[in-house]
Design goal:
heterodimer, A: 2 strands, B: mainly alpha, two-stranded antiparallel ribbon, membrane (chain B), transmembrane helix (chain B)
Chain lengths: 535, 154
């Protein structure tokens, strides 16, 4: 009997969509079911994590063939440590965002399909993390995007419509490029199953596969993923979209859907394409797999993201604008270690770098959701997020001030919060890279990271000092704070603290996830694609 | 668009399109077709009716109901019906997928029975995949017609 737990998170999200659609007229019940759906999702992901990470009786990774069709023909779901790590991030952010939405989004807007769309977004994310099939990855991307289009246009005024239009056009082009690349890969390798593709690319002669086009097609795919992750030069849709979407959704977009792009890069390049080899004599590129081509591109994009995001965030006048730009910079911090991992020769350094990227992804998801949700609480209380019209919020509500401070301090990277370990590991990989081979690239990396850390310090402390200290402004003096919102924020702040204080198991989890991303043969063996062998 | 030529053509074309749509829906589990493509074709037929006869025609002449004036497009009974069709279709598709779990099979497992000795057809194959297809059909028709009606009314 197959382990049904693998498909359970998707079924929970689907079931919640159905239930909240059916309960549209009973508003209180709809909200309760929506939050309950988030809680059940988290519980199911917890159970799946336990089965994958801790249960000794289970083979890992867990594989599920939908409809009972065997591997290369049917649709495969794979829950390995990497997928589960990302699912845990999604579950934590989702639960806090959905609970916060119920208290934050106004009555009228919650009625307009907010809850079904929220769970649709979650369904798309879950599918993208679990699928073991390239075309299905595209499908789940679309499910996720459909919901997010509506959310960006949610408030329906001119700037929101403009942001949604830009977001829509860009992502439709991205999706077309992705579909083109997937079609090309299917034509080249003769399969869509990721494990099967990995197997065929590792032994091209046996399956009659031409490796050269794969490099170009994988670059096309990479463009789409970079677009989703909002890396420079594909970052320009990010700030407008994040500012337009309802703030709890901005937390989801920054915390979770951005990570889907990063996850897809890691999964495809380290699991699917890593086995391919192609001798090259091209200038600065060393190594002979598509990974080697990826490394310099990813490095340049990550470094540019840190700089652009940092500059952008400093210039913003609204809290949500600051954090929207900050997301561009922070994703650079995730991507730089991935580029080190791609360029690395030794397996242990590769694992260290990937683990650093994953820890940073976790930190960013938790901290940025905390900051976006705090911004939402500020808007709910004071009616504005304009920094110059705020002031004295900390005296007005020490609890809100405390929560916001934890978010700011974590994103700056002060121990013992999650942000410290994220930054520390990223710097450690850069330093290790420099120690192994001193040169211009690692030196640039360290300089960029330092600059990025400085930018973070500047904009986070500016938001804190101007918004929360000083004279109380008129907006703050007449503000009313929702206690329910505050308790959700406090819970999330505790999670940020707890992950930092009890960091050891978290790091072990991230290391296992990195290991899973690098262990190509375990992935292929677990999915066990049959047939299609030889010419 | 409401010329006599358009109206006459559509009167001939729409029944043909609908029959083909149902044919595609019914053969979907064995041959090219299925709920999605059948649903899109059905929607196309109804859109043709909308184009030639207007939005209110379906509600007033076909369903013989009064069109309530006032209120947004969302309050129209036919739009509510489309939305309900969407929800029901999604529900049917999920239930038909989950049904396999009850027999210990993976999600979305399907099965079929063949009846022999049926008059005219000789043998009829009843597949559980048809239920899933029907669900998808409902989702597509309900969703697309909601969009067409609401956007068309703007």
């Amino acid at each position: 009997m197959p382990p049904h737990i693998v498909v359970a998170p998707m079924l929970v999200a689907l079931g919640t969509i159905l239930a909240v659609l059916g309960l549209r007229s009973a508003r209180a019940a709809q909200r309760a079911v929506s939050v309950l759906g988030g809680a059940v999702y988290a519980a199911v992901v917890g159970l799946l994590t336990w089965r994958v990470m801790l249960s000794p009786a289970e083979p890992t990774p867990l594989v599920y063939q939908i409809g009972g069709w065997p591997a290369p023909f049917g649709i495969t779901l794979v829950a390995d440590a990497l997928a589960v790590f990302m699912l845990v991030i999604a579950a934590v952010v989702t639960l806090s965002a959905v609970a916060f939405s119920v208290r934050f989004i106004d009555e009228q807007n919650q009625r307009v399909f907010y809850h079904p769309l929220f769970h649709c977004l979650l369904l798309g994310v879950t599918g993208a993390f679990l699928t073991g099939d390239l075309f299905n990855l595209f499908v789940w991307f679309e499910v996720m995007l459909m919901a997010s289009y509506v959310f960006v246009a949610f408030y329906g005024e001119a700037p929101h419509t403009a942001a949604a239009f830009r977001y829509l056009v860009l992502n439709v082009i991205g999706s077309a490029v992705m579909l083109l690349a997937i079609g090309g890969l299917y034509a080249t390798t003769g399969t869509l199953n990721m494990a099967d593709m990995s197997r065929r690319l590792a032994a091209p002669a046996a399956y009659g596969v031409d490796v050269a086009p794969v490099v170009g097609l994988s670059a096309l795919l990479f463009v789409t993923f970079a677009l989703k992750a909002g890396l420079v030069p594909f970052q320009f849709w990010v700030p407008a979209a994040y500012r337009s979407a309802p703030l709890p959704i901005a937390a989801m977009l920054a915390g979770v859907t951005k990570k889907v792009g990063v996850y897809a890069v890691v999964r495809l390049y380290f699991v699917v394409f890593a086995g391919a080899s192609l001798p090259t004599e091209f200038g600065p590129i060393s190594g002979n797999s598509p990974l080697a081509f990826l490394a310099p591109v990813l490095f340049a994009m990550g470094a540019a993201s840190i700089v652009v995001g940092g500059f952008g965030a400093i210039g913003q006048s609204r809290l949500d604008g600051v954090f929207a730009y900050s997301s561009v910079g922070q994703v650079g911090f995730i991507v730089l270690p991935v580029s080190f991992a791609a360029a690395a020769q030794s397996a242990s350094f590769r694992r260290l770098a990937l683990a650093a990227a994953l820890v940073y992804a976790l930190h960013h998801a938790l901290t940025k959701s905390l900051l976006f949700l705090s911004t939402a609480a500020v808007r709910g209380a004071a009616g504005t997020t304009n920094i110059s019209r705020l002031g004295g919020l900390a005296a007005f509500s020490p609890a809100l001030g405390g929560v916001f401070l934890i978010g700011c301090v974590s994103i700056i990277g002060v121990p013992p919060l999650t942000g410290f370990f994220g930054k520390f590991l990223v710097f450690e990989t850069a330093a290790a890279r420099y120690a192994a081979a001193p040169g211009l690239v690692p030196a640039t990396a360290i300089a960029t990271l330092l600059a990025g850390a400085l930018f973070t310090l500047l904009y986070a402390s500016r938001a804190w000092v101007r918004g929360f200290w000083g004279e109380q402004t008129e907006a703050v003096a007449t503000a009313t704070l929702d206690r329910g919102q505050l308790s959700i924020l406090a819970a999330l702040a505790l999670v940020v603290l707890a992950v930092g204080v009890g960091f050891d198991p978290v790091y072990e989890f991230a290391e296992a996830a990195a290991e899973a991303a690098l262990d190509r043969s375990a992935y292929v063996d677990a999915v066990a694609p049959r047939g299609g062998g030889g010419q | 668009m409401t010329t006599t030529i358009t109206r006459t053509t559509i009167r001939v074309v729409v029944p043909i399109v609908l029959v083909v749509a149902i044919l595609l829906l019914l053969q979907g589990h064995k041959l090219p077709g299925g709920g999605f493509i059948g649903g899109v074709l059905t929607t196309a037929a109804l859109v043709l009716v909308y184009v030639a006869y207007g939005l209110d025609y379906v509600e007033m002449e076909v369903l013989d109901r009064e069109v309530e004036s006032g209120g947004g497009i969302f309050e129209r009974r036919i739009v509510t019906a489309y939305r309900r069709l969407f929800s029901l279709g999604l529900g049917l598709a999920v239930v038909s997928g989950v049904a396999g779990l009850l027999f210990g099979e993976p999600f979305l497992s399907q099965s079929f029975v063949v009846f022999h000795g049926v008059p005219i057809y000789h043998e009829v194959e009843l597949a559980s995949a048809l239920l899933f297809d029907l669900g998808i059909y409902g989702v597509v028709v309900g969703g697309l017609l909601t969009i067409v009606s609401v956007v068309g009314a703007e």
